[in-house]
Amino acid sequence: MGIADMVRTRIIALCRERDITVNRMCELAAVPQSTVNNFLNRKTHNLGIITLKKLTDGLGLSITEFFDTEAFRALDQEIH
């Protein structure tokens, strides 16, 4: 699983944990739902760090907390 898929999985998991829809998360973060849906549906491959930061702010997380999971810690470096 690549990093984009891991980010997708993490976003969906956080919405489920908080019992909110992706639409609600987008409202909380002031991010267009189409931007997030395009990423989640693999129409775009890069969410962008600024958008991700807005999403984490809307969820009440720091960007560090978003990536602080075993899956991200175990991620291999993609450029060697």
Model description:
The chain has helices spanning 3-18, 22-29, 33-40, 49-59, 63-67, 70-73. The chain is 65% helix and 0% strand. With 80 residues, it is an all-alpha fold.
Quickly describe the structure.
With 80 residues, the chain is mostly helical.
Descriptive labels:
80 residues; mainly alpha; 65% helix
Rg value: 12 Å
User: What's the N-to-C terminus distance?
Assistant: 17 Å
**Uncertain stretches of 5 or more adjacent residues:** none
Give the SSE order as H and E letters: HHHHHH
Q: Strand portion, in percent?
A: under 5%
Count of helices? 6
**Class by helix and strand content?**
mainly alpha
Provide mean pLDDT, rounded.
92
Residues in helices, as a percent range: 55-70%
Please render the helix and strand layout as text:
Elements (H helix, E strand, L loop, with lengths): L2 H16 L3 H8 L3 H8 L8 H11 L3 H5 L2 H4 L7
